[in-house]
Amino acid sequence: MSRKLEGKKIMITGASSGLGVEIAKKCAQQGAILLLVGRNESRLEAIVQECCILGAREVLAYPYDLRNVHEIPSLINSVNEKAEGIDVLINNAGFGLFERLDQTSIQTVQDMFNVNVLSLIILTKSVIPIMKRGNKAHIINIASQAGKLATPKSSIYSATKFAVIGFSNSLRMELAEENIAVTVINPGPIDTSFFDQADSSGTYAKSVKRYMLNPEKVASKTVQSIFTNKREINLPAWMNGLAKIHTLFPSIVEAVGKKGFHSK
């Protein structure tokens, strides 16, 4: 196994569940120093113990609710004071809720943008000065295929992921001369607890179960991209292909895919 992450300080948000856990475990196996941020404190403590067993050089946990965007700079200061640097930031935290816009509360809209977009931007802005002091750094933003091809009952979620992709593409050019790489990961549905909240009825999750990605495999692809110049990772390939076709022939794709798009 590659040990390119040995001793590297890797900050992961949304680290107490789902894809974040798998990414943390993969980094731990390479001897990284992990800086884990998550809402669920007890779950976070369990992940700390597991990552230590897997080989992490050190694991520090920071229970934090990213809806509280105004205190994020203070969070980064605390992390930096203790870790003395951040080499990699993996902005993984996020949530969705599949429902029609006219049935979605303003609070849900605010919360989703705070967690999926604003916290990601503020975290990134806060770590850049720290990363500039090092030799090489990497920012990885977990977006979604929903940020390339929007479907019904995901207008707000798709809007947040479109924003993450656009932000990442601009940021990559801004940091090109700073030796800070920027990669965006665009997965389709992943078999995690994400759908417990996004799709409480279980209808959508059931309809796409056969297409769901293995979280461990997505984590592997994500970790493999660290310290490379990879612009994007799109999973699965066929879904990314569909998004490209939609860009060229939106009316046709929406007409042909209408039944599937409305399966939520």
What does it look like?
It is a single chain. The chain is an alpha/beta fold. The chain contains eleven helices and seven strands. Helix 4 links the parallel strand 4 (88-91) and strand 5 (137-142). It has helices at residues 18-28, 41-54, 72-83, 106-131, 155-174, 194-198, 203-207, 215-224, 237-248, 250-256, 258-261, and strands at 9-13, 33-38, 58-63, 88-91, 137-142, 180-187, 232-235. The radius of gyration is 18 Å and the shape is globular. The chain has a seven-stranded parallel beta sheet, sandwiched between helices.
Secondary-structure map:
Blueprint (H helix, E strand, L loop, with lengths): L8 E5 L4 H11 L4 E6 L2 H14 L3 E6 L8 H12 L4 E4 L14 H26 L5 E6 L12 H20 L5 E8 L6 H5 L4 H5 L7 H10 L7 E4 L1 H12 L1 H7 L1 H4 L3
Parallel strand pairs: 1-2, 1-4, 2-3, 4-5, 5-6, 6-7
In brief:
The chain is 48% helix and 15% strand. With 264 residues, the protein is an alpha/beta fold.
Largest sheet geometry? 7 strands, parallel
CATH fold node name: Rossmann fold
Mean pLDDT: 93
The secondary-structure class comes to alpha/beta
**In CATH, what is the homologous superfamily?**
NAD(P)-binding Rossmann-like Domain
**Poorly predicted tracts of residues:** none
Straight-line distance between termini: 40 Å
The backbone outline, from C-alpha atoms, is globular
Question: CATH class, anyone?
Answer: Alpha Beta
Helical percentage? 40-55%
